[in-house]
Design goal:
326 residues, alpha/beta, Four Helix Bundle (Hemerythrin (Met), subunit A), Rossmann fold, seven-stranded mixed β-sheet, four-stranded mixed β-sheet, 11 helices, 18 strands, 35% helix
Length: 326
């Protein structure tokens, strides 16, 4: 992805594996205020980075888990323990499980993990090409959470079509949900700014307002897991956006690589929904500078994901092309 730094424009990936087997992650907890990296030296570091959302986004988590297992192999860690640790870090997303299963089947786990990650990058690039076919010059696209290069190593899922459309010369505009409580909209805005794509961040509750005013032409979101019947598990609030899009007759598309498809589950209701720490709602700010939004006595519920049923989805954007059903 393109990143504007103090020294100029450069290309970066959100997840990288160094020659000395250190996993380097763009620390998404500090964005968009400053760009820093987080280094993982063993599977405990890697599981921490996944659990605490140093790295987030299903494909990027999968890439990190693949590298984490390979790293554990090189370090001589107990592979069963490392695998269990990595699988438990974020239970709702499918990609880490796909990545671990793929990596551990090889004789050389380093090469196997690299193969997996490169396949994800290639798939996301293809998603961008296919998805851009849906975007007309002048379109206004709404997205939820962050499904860009930060979340996928490079290119993105939901943002990949916007990247390709922009580079093909189409004038487009993006509505960016802030996506409480982790504010992933700030990450999307940061990526779009680096790509020089016009956009505005809106509060989550404003999406219906702009849809009703005919200021949204298309909705594209990503996914953390997609079940066999086409139900989509994604960041909390996705279901609401799908309902609003349906009511306002706006096409609603989900972009994801094959690693996100879970053929072991028939329906979304079978998926374990991660419940995260309530402090994510009660506090605001970047990792090392938090301020309270609610007093200590307030109790909250903080589900990280919801399920969007197949009936609300116009179609799917995958590396294989545009699909009306799976």
């Amino acid at each position: 992805m393109r990143v504007v730094t103090e020294t100029g424009l450069r290309e970066m990936r959100s997840v990288a594996f160094t020659e000395d087997c250190v996993i380097e992650l763009i620390d998404q907890r500090s964005l968009p205020w400053y760009l820093s990296t987080f280094r993982c030296y063993d599977s405990e570091d890697t599981a921490f980075a996944i659990k605490e959302m140093v790295v987030r986004g299903a494909p990027a988590i999968g890439a990190t888990a693949a590298y984490g297992l390979a790293q554990a192999w090189v370090n001589g860690e107990d592979l069963d323990e490392a695998e269990s640790r990595l699988r438990a870090a974020r239970p709702t997303a499918k990609d880490p499980f796909t990545a671990i299963d793929y990596t551990k089947m090889g004789d050389d786990l380093i090469e196997r993990s690299k193969e997996y990650v490169e396949s994800v990058v290639k798939e996301c690039r293809e998603i961008g090409k296919h998805g851009s076919e849906l975007i007309e010059d002048g379109d206004r696209i709404l997205t939820h959470c962050n499904a860009g290069a930060l979340a996928t190593v490079d290119w993105g899922t939901a943002l990949a079509p916007l990247r390709v459309a922009k580079r093909d010369g189409k004038e487009i505009f993006a509505w960016v949900d802030e996506t409480r409580p982790k504010m992933q909209g700030a990450l999307t805005s940061w990526e779009l700014e680096n790509e020089e794509i016009a956009h505005r961040v809106i509060v989550d509750n404003a999406a219906g307002f702009f849809m009703e005013r005919k200021e949204v032409d298309l909705v594209i979101v990503g996914a953390d897991r997609v079940t066999r019947n086409g139900d989509v598990i994604n960041k909390i609030g996705t279901y609401e956006k799908a309902l609003l899009a349906k009511e306002n007759e706006i096409p609603f598309y989900v972009a994801f690589p094959s690693s996100t498809l879970d053929n072991t589950l028939e329906r979304g209701e079978e998926v374990e929904i991660e419940e995260r720490n309530g402090n994510e709602i009660k506090e605001a700010g970047i990792e090392d500078l938090k301020m309270p939004l609610y007093p200590g006595y307030v109790k909250v519920k903080n589900p990280a994901f919801d399920v969007t049923p197949r009936k609300l989805i116009t179609g799917y954007i995958t590396e294989e092309g545009l699909k009306n059903r799976l």
